[in-house]
C-alpha cells in the first residue's frame, strides 16, 4: 500500500476548463517514461479536483505532483497548502491510488 499523502498544495485556475486541461497534460506526462518516477513513494503524484459545481478550477496536488508538473513544463503557483483531512468532502481523485481515499 502506498504511503499516505499528508499535505496537498492548492492550485487555482480562472475556470474549471483550464484546470481540467492542465490536469490532463500533467497526467499525460505522469504516464510517460519521463514521468514514471513520480509514481512511486515517497514522491508519488496525487491529484484531486474540487467540487464539480464550481465555475472556478481548483486542483489539489501532492508535492510529487507539483514537482512532476514543473518537470512537464508547467509552473503552478500554489495559493495554499492543506492537510489531507482538510480537502473538500466532494473532491474527485484524478490521479493516484484507491488507497488515497482513506
Provide the succession of SSEs: EHEEHEE
Q: Which structural category fits the helices and strands?
A: alpha+beta
* Beta strands, count: 5
**Mean of residue pLDDT values:** 89
User: Uncertain spans, ≥5 residues at pLDDT below 50?
Assistant: none
Morphology: globular
Can you walk me through this structure?
The protein is an alpha+beta fold and 102 residues long. The chain has one domain (7-101). Helices cover 24% and strands 23% of the residues. The protein contains two helices and five strands, in the order βαββαββ. The chain has helices at 16-30, 63-71; strands spanning 7-13, 47-49, 57-61, 80-83, 92-95. It has a five-stranded antiparallel β-sheet. It starts with 6 loop residues before the first strand and ends in a 7-residue tail after the last strand. The model has no long low-confidence stretch (mean pLDDT 89).
Search tags:
single chain, 102 residues, alpha+beta, five-stranded antiparallel sheet, 2 helices, 24% helix
Amino acid at each position: 500500500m502506498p504511503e499516505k499523502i499528508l499535505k496537498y498544495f492548492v492550485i487555482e485556475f480562472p475556470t474549471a476548463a483550464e484546470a481540467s486541461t492542465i490536469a490532463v497534460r500533467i497526467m499525460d506526462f505522469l504516464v510517460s517514461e519521463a514521468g514514471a518516477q513520480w509514481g512511486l513513494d515517497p514522491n508519488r503524484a496525487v491529484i484531486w479536483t474540487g467540487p464539480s459545481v464550481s465555475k472556478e478550477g481548483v486542483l489539489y496536488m501532492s508535492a510529487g505532483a507539483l514537482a512532476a508538473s514543473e518537470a512537464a513544463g508547467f509552473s503552478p503557483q500554489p495559493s495554499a497548502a492543506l492537510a489531507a483531512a482538510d480537502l473538500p468532502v466532494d473532491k474527485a481523485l484524478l490521479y493516484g491510488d484507491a488507497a488515497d481515499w482513506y
